[in-house]
Amino acid sequence: MSNDPYVLAREAAAALKAAAGLDTFDVALVMGSGWVPAADAIGQVVAEVPFTDLPGFAAPAVAGHGGRIRAVRTDAGRHALIFLGRSHLYEGRGVDAVVHGVRTAAAAGVRTVVLTNAAGGLRPETQQVGDPVLISDHINLTGANPITGTTFLDLTEVYSKRLRDLVREIDPSLAEGVYVAFRGPTYETPAEIRMLRTLGGDLIGMSTVLEAIAAREAGLDVLGVSLVTNPAAGLAGDPLDHEEVLQVGRATAARMGVLLAKAVDRL
Fold first, then answer.
1. Where is the Nucleoside phosphorylase domain (predicted)?
2. How many CB atoms lie within 10 A of CB 186?
3. Does the pTM exceed 0.70?
């Protein structure tokens, strides 16, 4: 097996296409913590492959991440890859492992990727737990980048305004926000949350931004959607708990599934 991450992505893409009996895919979705139940609404399952059966993938280490890749056909006849889980930087496998799913999707022909996540809300005065928020921009505080060398990539518009506008046609109530990514796995301190509010952040999490950068490097259009699962540290007085994240995901799965199903056929 090659150690080149781009070769591994092509090998994984070839295996996925063979499993689904398809030459290409239209769109990919990466399902974050608590989002996995929403995947059932997106389309008819054509094939489902465990991460561990594909080159370059490892089983997710986080509860709420399914560890499978599902190929589906939507009602409109589009073919989607759904990544039921992801790798995170704090798992210690490196940046290439974090973005391997996005690179595999690109190698499989995908031109649009939807990145979902569970996020702490930095603006409880305007955000409610259970609200989906469209990501308009990000602040990368992970200390990492999936691109090395002298590839200078313009990140003026990482998250496509055109795609956000399309999704707001489905649900005009959706707000936008700036997503801040930390490495994790510790949650942020109240002092860090005060800093992030001052910097202009609206959402806080431990994923998405490295995948978004890798997607833009591959020429993909990116739609990012955060599910607000809790107020960030120090804003509500309660300790943070990953089980709370999963509970909110289960409670909102039906709404998120309908939103994603409608969006996929328009992207």
1. 27-264
2. 12
3. yes
